[in-house]
Amino acid sequence: MLKGFLSVNAGCAQCHAPLGRYPAADGPAFFTMTIMLLVLIPLLGIVWTVWRPEPLTLLAITGIVMTLMTLALLRLIKGAFIGYLWANNEQDRGA
What we know:
By secondary structure, the protein is mostly helical. The chain contains two helices and two strands; from the N terminus they run ββαα. The chain has one domain (about 1-85). The chain is about 60% helix and about 5% strand.
């Protein structure tokens, strides 16, 4: 379904569905940010109360964890979003 990291193939290799016509736009990024913030807020609170690391250490660890989780989730969420659009036949019909 996806070529490269986030580019959508024009069509499905198996069923030849026109995947390029499904406008994912900013939906996957919004859902990824929402999930990441819902994970980040309790994680910061727990780490800060249990271990009390230095603020720069906490920032570095949090930044690395957030980047890796975002990169892992974004592609999966975009695939699910396009699958949802495909299932509901929400194609870009042009202006």
